[in-house]
Design a protein that fits this description.
By secondary structure, this protein is α/β, with parallel strands linked by helices. The chain has 3 domains: 2-178, Alpha-D-Glucose-1,6-Bisphosphate, Chain A, domain 3 (3-Layer(aba) Sandwich), CATH 3.40.120.10; 183-389, Alpha-D-Glucose-1,6-Bisphosphate, subunit A, domain 3 (Alpha-D-Glucose-1,6-Bisphosphate, Chain A, domain 3), CATH 3.40.120; 397-474, Alpha-D-phosphohexomutase, C-terminal domain (TATA-Binding Protein), CATH 3.30.310.50. It has helices at residues 2-6, 48-63, 80-94, 107-116, 149-159, 180-190, 216-222, 249-258, 285-298, 314-322, 334-344, 367-381, 385-389, 414-427, 453-474; strands at 15-18, 25-28, 37-40, 70-75, 98-104, 121-125, 134-140, 174-176, 202-206, 226-230, 262-266, 273-277, 282-283, 306-309, 327-330, 348-350, 356-358, 397-403, 432-437, 443-449. A hairpin with a 6-residue loop joins strand 1 (15-18) and strand 2 (25-28). The termini are far apart.
Length: 475
């Protein structure tokens, strides 16, 4: 395989890591994280010169896999997207790769179009739910999934080389896909079948002034819903600004104001969504996942089980257990959720944030598709969303971020382990404790979950104090 062969080209700046238990040597990526490359605009690696080199490097890798490669490029509505689109285009064409440009388009739409247009890869310029000051790059493979580690390592290997341009006759060409929006709208509608209609439902949709601003309302309206919109006026600077799935207050207010049956809030790039019932109660990703699982079980649709993460609410695990639906947890991140789903052959997985994967329908998290799956349950059962989610009792959670300073392994200290053990004893099997290092900043996330909100808050504070004291000790 090309990707495996390229692993031998280890640049001097890579970190070589040896697993203490297995002895296996692996190369650690410097640029790619669990969801592509992301950061502050104007700061490495989110700069025009790096994006030029990244486009060229990706082009070199994919050009080796095909005589004439084609790569899709989409973006959300950030003002910096224009700059990075141009830089990527220059790098890719210099490597001899053809480009199809879609303009503003949800992340899952690029995953879908990459597959259906038989492209070698798809690129999305987006920082998802972050504010406009940030941006990033996400890649999709030719089958619409995140790139395997081998390909990301191969791209990083090329970044370490000098940029060269192919012969003029071999330069790539760029063209626009004029019907990308319509293609994706039809796909979204097809996921609920040709006979289902949303007629009679009044739905508020919040598009976070992001990539779904002119797509999500169209999907819902064409399915028959009475649609009220907010967050559909992007100006390049207002994406995710006090709106969208990370800020549901605006959606709650609008649902109550217009007397809607429910509301849907998407994030800036459209790969996640949460909902609000007719009383203004937020229905998060865990609850949506539970509603979708229940509806599939009711209709005897086989899905295997449900994959969540370490942050998934214990209440969902309990509710699924009562239905005898298998449930497992992974590390936080849709990449890990998808890997576990594929290994087990299961069709449903997701995160509390609303990043839900319906693998029998699509290849990645899709905010519009997952919302439509929940809406399908509302329509087919003729029950309000509030009633459907009531079968799951979400347990109170308290999470506190503790700065680690220079310390790196505080959670393994004797004092912290004893504190965790004591709290688990107090919870007595009716809750859990989680210590999770942040992947982007030097903090440890201290989370306690249980049946009593006051007790949970107190225990979380006590544990955070122990962690902070240990961090100070190591500093």
């Amino acid at each position: 395989m090309l990707a495996l062969a390229l692993l031998a080209e280890i640049p001097y700046y890579w970190t070589i890591h040896k697993d203490n238990e297995t002895g296996i040597m692996t190369a650690r990526k410097h640029y790619f994280g669990t969801d592509g490359i992301r950061g502050k605009v104007g700061h490495m690696p989110i700069t025009p010169d790096f994006m030029l080199k990244l486009g060229w490097a990706a082009g070199k890798v994919f050009a080796k896999e095909s005589h004439r490669s084609k790569i899709l490029i989409g973006k959300d509505t950030r003002i910096s997207g224009y700059m990075f689109e141009a830089a990527l285009e220059a790098g890719l064409t210099a490597a001899g790769v053809d480009i199809n440009l879609t303009g503003p388009m949800p992340t899952p739409a690029i995953a879908y179009l990459t597959r259906t247009l038989r492209a070698q890869a798809g690129i999305v310029i987006s920082a998802s739910h972050n504010s406009f000051e940030d941006n990033g790059i996400k890649f999709f493979s030719d089958n619409g999934t995140k790139l395997p580690d081998q390909i990301e390592l191969a791209i990083e290997a090329e970044i370490g080389k000098d940029l060269t341009t192919v012969e003029p006759k071999s330069l790539g060409k760029a063209s626009r896909i004029d019907d990308a929006r319509g293609r994706y709208i039809e796909f979204c509608k097809s996921t609920v079948g040709s006979r289902l209609t949303l007629t009679g439902l009044k739905v508020v949709v919040d598009c976070a002034n992001g990539a779904t601003y002119d797509i999500a309302p169209a999907v819902l309206a064409e399915l028959g819903a009475d649609v009220v919109t907010i967050g559909t006026d992007p100006n390049g600077l207002n994406i995710n600004d006090k709106i969208g799935s990370t800020s549901p207050a605006a959606l709650k207010e609008k649902v109550l104001e217009v007397g809607a049956d429910l509301g849907v809030a998407l994030d800036g790039d459209g790969d996640r969504s949460i909902m609000v019932d007719h009383q203004g109660n937020v229905v998060d990703g865990d609850e949506m996942l539970f509603v979708i699982a229940c509806e599939r079980r009711r209709r005897h649709v086989e899905f295997g089980g449900v994959v969540g993460t370490m942050m998934s609410n214990f209440g969902m695990e309990q509710a699924l257990a009562e239905l005898e639906v298998p449930f497992v947890r992974t590390a936080v991140g849709d990449r890990f959720v998808m890997q576990e789903m594929q290994q087990r052959g299961w069709q449903l997985g997701g995160e509390s944030s609303g990043h839900i994967i319906c693998h029998d329908i699509t290849t990645t998290g899709d905010g519009i598709v997952s919302a439509l799956q929940a809406l399908t349950a509302v329509v087919l059962t003729n029950k309000p969303l509030m009633e459907l989610r009531s079968a799951m009792r979400k347990l109170p959670q308290t999470m506190i971020n503790v700065s680690l300073g220079q310390s790196s392994n505080v959670s393994a200290s004797q004092n912290v382990r004893e504190a965790v053990s004591n709290i688990e004893g107090e919870l007595n099997g009716r809750g859990r404790v989680l210590l999770r290092p942040s992947g982007t900043e030097p903090v440890l996330r201290v989370m306690v979950e249980g049946e009593d909100a006051d007790q949970v808050a107190q225990l979380a504070r006590e544990l955070a104090d122990v962690v902070a004291a240990e961090a100070d000790e190591f500093t």
